[in-house]
Structures are given as structure tokens and as C-alpha cells.
Amino acid sequence: MLDHPLPPKIPWVDESKCQSCRKCVARKACRVKAILAIDPGEPPFIDGNLCYGCLACLPACPFDAIVVE
Ligand code: SF4
Ligand code: SF4
Questions:
Q1: Which range of residues forms the domain containing residue 30?
Q2: Are 15 and 63 in contact (CB under 8 A)?
Q3: What is the pTM of this model?
């Protein structure tokens, strides 16, 4: 048995798959708005300080651009 819970797995945006959608639907799926889209036309990125590893964004992206190990 583990004494401590495992740290959450923080996903990231695979820029080779991301289509830099005008409205990132993965971002909409994130309850804490940890997916930050700064520049239109650039892939968003995930703020590891906000993300709590729920992984709801993975199935939300239609291009499988959000990945985790
Ligand atoms: S992460 Fe997915 S939904 Fe968001 S901009 Fe990239 S391809 Fe589009
Ligand atoms: S794993 Fe959850 S909290 Fe982290 S970016 Fe994805 S939807 Fe947001």
C-alpha cells in the first residue's frame, strides 16, 4: 500500500499534432482553465501549476494533440 498518493500526471500539448484551433475545445473541457492559449495561431500550453491531472482534456481534443505519459 502506498503511504502517499502518486502525483498527478500533467499532460502536455504535442505541437506536431495540434492544429492551433481558433477555439481550443480541449481548453473548454478544462475546469480550471489550465490550458492557456496566448497567441492565436499558436498551440496552447498547459500550466502545470493549475493542472490537477484530471485528463478530461485528452478525449476533448479532436486531434489527439494532448498527451500524457
Ligand atoms: S489542443 Fe486540440 S483542440 Fe486545442 S488547439 Fe490543439 S488541436 Fe485544437
Ligand atoms: S488534465 Fe484536467 S486540469 Fe489538467 S489541463 Fe487537462 S482538463 Fe485541465
A1: 1-69
A2: no
A3: 0.89
